[in-house]
Amino acid sequence: MTDANAAPTLVVGLGCQRGCPVSTLRALLDQALQAHQIELHQIKALASIDLKRDEPALAELAEQLGLPVLYFSSDQLAGYEPQLSHHSQIAFERTGCYGVAESAALALAEQLANAPAKLLIRRQKYAQATMALACAA
User: Which of 25, 53, 70, 73 is deepest in the core (most CB within 10 A)?
Assistant: First the structure.
């Protein structure tokens, strides 16, 4: 991390199967942050695809962490396809997007920082969920 005046904007992108328990999302998040030595308080927001707007685990996780969760359409996420570390055909068939976690993280980090974003943590998969972390300076 650079020691610039402003802290970088760190955003977590999440994807999950219907009915995924909040404990699964939290375990995946905690594990990934710990592995990369990132503190939870450094995270600015959570992001996912708008198809998951009514997914209870995402709202519960945001509430637990005291963070906003923002949702993007598959059209908004499609532009991030070249930056994805993994292209999931299943995700595409279900959502119209090749990678929900990575593209949602990139989209929100760029939106919040008004600057280009890059993936700090590539797609991590665990049980019924995926997460990624993007950073914009």
Answer: 25
Residue 106's domain comprises 9-136
Question: What gap in Å lies between CA 8 and CA 111, rounded to an integer?
Answer: 13
Q: Tell me if 1 is assigned to some domain.
A: no
Q: Which of 1-10, 24-33, 67-76 has the lowest mean pLDDT?
A: 1-10
User: What is residue 84's predicted lDDT score, i.e. its pLDDT?
Assistant: 97
Number of domains the chain is built from: 1
Q: What is the pTM of this model?
A: 0.93
Is residue 99 situated within a structural domain? yes
